Amino acid sequence: MGTYETSEDSVVNPVKTNVVKVPKAGELVAADLRRRIITGELSVGDPLPNEAALMEHFGVSRPTLREAFRILESESLITVLRGAHGGARALALDDAVAARHTGLLLQYRGTPLIDVYRARTELEVAAVGMLGTGRDRASAAGLDKLDRLVQEGTHLVDDNEAYAQHDVRLHRTVVELTDNTTLNILAEMLFKIIAVHNVVFIAEHESGQARSANRAAQRAWTKLAKLLGDADVAAAQAYWRRHLEGVARFMVGNSEATVVDVLS
User: Fold this and answer.
1) CATH number, position 256
2) Contact 257, 112 (CB under 8 A)
3) In a domain, 15, yes or no
4) Above 80 in pLDDT, residue 18?
5) How high is the pLDDT of residue 22?
6) Which of 4, 48, 99, 159 is 20 to 30 A from 39, alpha carbon to alpha carbon?
7) CA-CA distance, 1 to 206, in Å (whole number)?
8) What is the DSSP letter of 90?
9) pLDDT grade, residue 84 (50/70/90)?
């Protein structure tokens, strides 16, 4: 029952409620199967037990079981094949699914595109700090990898599409080298949106303007790699923040574009 104030209008204006939502049977079945897939109890590509076996195991009806399947299909955790040799099979977890749902949520909320670039800045500046403070053999190998990738960019600056892809790869690498799974997943959602925006930007602007931006980006990557190689973490973070803020101004400017304008 709800708890109400004793004022004269308390009957109409409840201030607190203790109502607890009881999960439906289909949601409970989906939760159990979801746990088995995530923990690897059900391997990718493995068929789930047939409907009759699952109905008996969970003590539910066929409509309830199929509701659970619909939930898991919407989460891209299973695929249900029809026909004599059909049935439900477990799917690999894909970060693209999370990115797609995040993109939809940002579109639904009318999120400005500049918001995505600012979030990317904060994540990458943090990643640069994590990279710079690691002085073990793995960290050194990571910085060597970043340096090699930066050098590859020198041959791509005149190819706008190729350099745009290379640039996104470099941004991903900075975060990947932190070896922080949570940071990587969050960043990947943003990178997918920015990669799409790169394509839109190139299509809408003269090739000379994009090439000029490519050269500026290549110089920035070269300087970042040097600062990290010199273990000057504070300078690397400050420099990368300034660079990314400049990128955001260049790519978005005063535009009121939202994520929906890019992804729709």
Assistant:
1) 1.20.120.530
2) yes
3) no
4) no
5) 66
6) 99
7) 65
8) E
9) low
- Mean pLDDT is lowest, of 19-23, 152-156, 187-191, 214-218, for 19-23
**Token digits of residue 20:** 């607890």
How many helices and strands, by DSSP H and E, does the chain display?
11, 2
Token code pair at residue 12: 């109409």
- 3-class SS of residue 235: helix
* Angle (CA) 121 125 131, round 5°: 145
The CA radius of gyration of the chain, in Å to the nearest whole number, is 25
Note whether residue 146 is domain-resident. Answer: yes
The pLDDT, as a whole number, for residue 9 is 47
DSSP string covering 12-66: T---B----PPPPHHHHHHHHHHHHHHTTSS-TTPBPPPHHHHHHHHT--HHHHH
For residue 65 the two structure tokens come to 């079981």
Cα-based distances in Å from 3 to 12, 15, 62, 139, 169: 12, 7, 39, 57, 55
247 and 171 in one domain? yes
Q: CB–CB of 192/254 below 8 Å?
A: no
Residue among 253, 164, 248 at smallest CA distance from 203? 164
Sole residue written with tokens 């049935």: 87
- Residue 33's domain comprises 25-90
pLDDT in tens, 27-71: 999 999 988 888 888 888 888 988 999 999 999 999 999 999 999
Torsions phi, psi for 78 (to 5 deg): -140, 160
Distance CA 53, CA 66 (A): 13
